[in-house]
Design brief:
By secondary structure, the protein is α/β, with parallel strands linked by helices. It is built from seven helices and eight strands; from the N terminus they run E-H-E-H-E-H-E-H-E-H-E-H-E-E-H. It binds guanosine-5'-monophosphate. GO terms for molecular function: hypoxanthine phosphoribosyltransferase activity. Keywords: Glycosyltransferase, Transferase.
Length: 207
């Protein structure tokens, strides 16, 4: 890894605007934001997706999930798990969703994160969500309703990945990365101590 890439809030906004153009044809009906990096992009995307359907359309509901890559917690097996295993900090509560009449079965569901690095997190999110929805649909006798998953990230790092996403997702355009980078560290604005300096560095890099 050489240079750090400074991404400004305006960059994030514009990447979401670009991404929404790719995503709108799939008509996303629910957004699942992977926290914390997916939260701000998800909120911005919602505005552009709504606008593309006309301002009188309903807001797309956003659900939050919390996933974290395993970090050394002092256990014996950490070397096998570190950077590969996901810890589920927060997941969808399907019974609460049902109470609030948010039905995910048969919907077009957009999963949002900020960066696809080793792909471990996105692989986990997509495969677990698919598994849970298949089980729920089966239980409710609605196995014939097709739920479609889409993925949006601001940045995809062009590097060997530790995990895959479904081949049909990749081939049908249901994986949208607004920007492809090398294997560099990306500094996002929401992590900045000094946002003015961060923005200055981001603007200077563009010159
Ligand atoms: P994964 O390796 O599973 O694709 O990414 C795991 C997580 O690591 C990401 O969701 C993100 O929070 C963090 N991450 C990976 N690369 C970067 C990066 O370049 N910048 C920042 N800020 N976070 C990163």
């Amino acid at each position: 890894m050489s240079e750090k890439i400074y991404v400004t809030y305006n960059d994030v906004h514009k990447l979401c605007q670009e991404g929404a153009k790719e995503l709108e044809k799939f008509n996303p009906e629910v957004i699942i934001a992977i926290g914390g990096g997916g939260f701000i992009p998800a909120r911005i995307l919602r505005t552009f997706l709504k606008r593309s359907r006309g301002d009188r359309s309903k807001n797309i509901p956003i659900q939050a999930v919390g996933l974290s890559l395993y970090e050394d917690m002092g256990t014996d097996d950490y070397e096998e798990k570190i950077g590969k295993e996901i810890i589920r900090m927060q997941w969808l509560d399907f019974s609460a969703l049902n109470e609030h009449k948010l039905d995910l079965i048969g919907k077009n569901i957009l999963i949002v994160d900020e960066v696809d690095d080793t792909r471990t997190t996105l692989h986990y999110a997509v495969s677990e969500l698919q598994k849970d929805l298949d089980a729920l649909a089966e239980k409710l006798g609605r196995g014939d309703e097709k739920t479609t998953l889409l993925v949006f990230v601001l940045h995809n790092k062009d590097k060997p990945k530790n995990a895959e996403l479904p081949a049909d997702m990749m081939s049908s355009g249901r994986y949208v990365a607004a920007c492809t980078t090398g294997d560099e560290w990306i500094a996002y604005p929401w992590e900045a101590d000094n946002i003015d300096e961060h923005t200055r560095l981001g603007l200077a890099q563009k010159k």
